[in-house]
Write a structure and sequence with these properties.
- The chain is mostly helical.
- 52% of the residues lie in helices and 1% in strands.
- The chain has helices spanning 2-35, 45-58, 79-91, 100-111, 139-153, 171-177, 192-209, 213-228, 245-263, 272-280, 297-310, 316-334, 367-385; strands at residues 351-352, 359-360.
- The protein has a two-stranded antiparallel ribbon.
- A hairpin with a 6-residue loop joins strand 1 and strand 2 (359-360).
- It is globular.
Length: 401
């Protein structure tokens, strides 16, 4: 009886997944017909910039210059939203319109949330039981975003990232890496890859912007240990079924979080063609990179970033395949923009980013997806045109040339 019941549950789940997939397919098809997204050559950067600038301005909180909400449905301004507003404006070249005093004041606003004790940022509007111990979102995650925002403003954070000193004792790097079963795939519930990225990239920032030699030594040890753990069979980390879409997608996302620790330092000593061939397999029929057809902003950017950065190390045949895929994916990412507004994380899905004040309703634009999808578009546009209008800075983490 149990086996019959179990099989029935599986069948119901399969039917639901198929129905959800059909609904998403139908929604995306309608969007294609309605929007008629143009090729990159006809991309209207000025109009795009105007729409996003207006969207960001619409979320300004009570006309306070540096305070923003994540979405229209949110009730409070958050530090996260302010950072995403700034980073998006910077990509669009709009930050150049700020006066020196405005830039200084925006940095002071960021600094007002920073702890002198550990260098991390604490915003009462979003702090909750997972804020301190998460890395897909939370204190360390926010810090890695703020270093980009501060660099865009031409400033550094008020305090060093003292929480990193724990890792200057290299045994703690070993303990960090020992939390990963490098001989298997990593579950979606684990954010250990985000943690390694947050620590590794902030070590780079501490090294380059704070001139911290201990951070430099720790970083080199971390990179050396990570290189040792690469699986030569698939070219990245972990052992998984490359033909299993969920495992493949998760491990490409895992790799994306580790690669910036190397790519920012111009270290491309990997089996790049093998990696590219694996990443190309994550594309779906709408040219996003998620298992589900309404692929998320993270799934898309993660694959797009790797493909663009590794393209120059590939054969002419693979380079052509990458270029063709990026052209198609450019149109897919633009499809996620709400009319005359910002972007959604996933079409037809509500989005909650760690806190209800960092959330958006179904098909409602939000600050985080707007920044991350704009970053995808910026990388793709600059790659495809070779003289793109988007402004990319050089800073450890998410944004570097």
């Amino acid at each position: 009886m149990y086996i019959i019941y179990n099989n029935f549950k599986k069948k119901i789940k399969f039917i639901k997944e198929e129905f959800d997939s059909w609904q998403i397919q139908n929604k995306v098809n309608k969007l294609h017909l309605k929007k008629s997204i143009k090729e990159i050559e006809n991309f209207d950067f000025i109009n795009f910039k105007l729409k996003l600038s207006n969207f960001i301005k619409s979320l300004q909180f009570k006309e306070e210059r540096f305070m923003y909400k994540h979405s229209s449905s949110c009730t409070k301004p958050t530090l996260y939203a302010s950072v995403y507003a700034l980073m998006t404006l910077s990509l669009l070249g709009e930050i150049n319109k700020l006066s020196n005093q405005e830039k200084k004041d925006w940095q002071k606003y960021f600094d007002s949330f920073q702890s002198e004790i550990d260098g991390l940022y604490y915003d009462p509007a979003v702090q909750n039981e997972i804020y301190n111990n998460s890395d897909w979102w939370g204190a360390r995650h926010l810090a890695l975003h703020i270093v980009t925002a501060s660099t865009q403003l031409g400033y550094r954070p008020k305090y060093s990232f003292l929480f990193l000193k724990k890792y200057y004792e290299l045994v703690n790097i070993d303990k960090l890496l020992d939390k990963v079963d490098w001989q298997s795939d990593v579950s979606y519930s684990s954010d250990i890859d985000n943690k390694i990225m947050n620590i590794g990239c902030l070590l780079q920032y501490q090294r380059d912007f704070m001139k911290d030699n201990d951070a430099a030594k720790t970083l080199e040890y971390l990179k050396k240990q990570l290189k040792k753990k690469i699986n030569n069979t698939n070219g990245i980390w972990g052992s998984f079924d490359v033909e299993n879409p969920r495992q493949r997608s998760r491990m490409v996302q895992f790799a994306y979080h580790l690669f910036p620790i190397f790519f920012y330092d111009n270290d491309y000593g990997f089996d790049n063609e093998k990696i590219v061939q694996l990443v190309l397999k994550t594309k779906n029929k709408h040219n996003g990179f998620g298992v589900k057809l309404n692929s998320g902003a993270c799934e898309d950017l993660d694959s797009i970033d790797i493909l663009i950065r590794l393209e120059k190390y590939c054969s002419p045949r693979l380079q052509k395949e990458i270029q063709e895929q990026i052209r198609k994916s450019f149109k897919w990412v633009l499809l996620n923009q709400i009319e005359d507004s910002g972007f959604v994380f996933k079409i037809d899905e509500k989005f909650i980013y760690g806190s209800i004040e960092n959330s958006s309703n179904k098909n409602e634009a939000g600050m985080f997806p707007t920044w991350f999808r704009t970053l995808s578009i910026a990388y793709m546009a600059n790659y495809l045109t070779k003289h793109g209008n988007f402004q990319i800075i050089n800073c450890p983490g998410y944004e570097f040339k």
